[in-house]
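User: Sequence recovery, please. Input:
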């Protein structure tokens, strides 16, 4: 018998909600109609992001390499965030081989030099340079990443590494899937990064320049 798909939503019954006192709601209470709510474990909102980070087991956690990019300020500052969220999504999606946290760290180095708001791109934001389009996709319950989405993330939240890093790691897993579909096989590290940057199948002369900084950062992390 085929396995039933995991239920991702549930119907919430009518229930009272406290609201500001007004002419419409003089008692400060309104009744919320029945509506659909995603089940815990299929999405991350800011509160859940904080809870997961605090509670994720640190035993046997694989950390990105430290002490290799001293020329960049704050290069090792976000290592715990990278380690926790790479581990979380490796377990969530179970891909083989698992995502290397050094890939995430090198990606961030190539996107922002670990700066919280680099002035490079008016359509991308924060330490991972997440675009407006990606921000919207990652919260779209009917979109391409609907199997696991974020919720209640504002555009200005992309400047917060505690939110931007898990979103970037989640997007890397999505891009691994789309790259696999395009290539007919699992992507290597460089192909994954090109797909993250939207350049895997591009003929743009910018393609190799976009990859150059990542390769330098990743190479330094893997050097002995």
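Assistant: Recovered sequence (224 residues):
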């Amino acid at each position: 018998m085929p396995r039933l798909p995991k239920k991702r939503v549930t119907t919430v019954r009518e229930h009272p909600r406290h609201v500001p006192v007004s002419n419409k709601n003089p008692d400060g209470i309104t009744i919320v109609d029945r509506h659909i709510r995603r089940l815990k474990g299929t999405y991350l909102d800011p509160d859940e992001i904080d809870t997961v980070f605090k509670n994720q087991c640190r035993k046997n956690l694989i950390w990105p390499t430290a002490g290799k990019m001293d020329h960049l300020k704050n290069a090792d500052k976000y290592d715990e965030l990278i380690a926790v969220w790479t581990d979380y999504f490796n377990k969530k999606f179970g891909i083989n081989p698992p995502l290397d946290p050094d890939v995430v760290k090198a990606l961030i180095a190539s996107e922002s030099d670990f700066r919280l708001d680099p002035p490079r791109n008016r359509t991308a934001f924060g330490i991972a340079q997440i675009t407006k389009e990606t921000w919207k996709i990652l919260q779209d319950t009917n979109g391409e990443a609907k199997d696991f989405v974020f919720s209640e993330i504002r555009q200005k939240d992309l400047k917060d590494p505690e939110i931007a890093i898990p979103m970037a790691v989640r997007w890397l897993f999505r891009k691994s899937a789309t790259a696999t579909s395009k290539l007919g096989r699992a992507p290597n590290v460089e192909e994954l990064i090109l797909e993250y940057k939207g350049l895997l199948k591009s003929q743009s002369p910018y393609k190799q320049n976009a990859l150059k900084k990542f390769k330098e950062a990743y190479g330094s992390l893997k050097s002995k």
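DSSP finds seven helices and eight strands in the chain.
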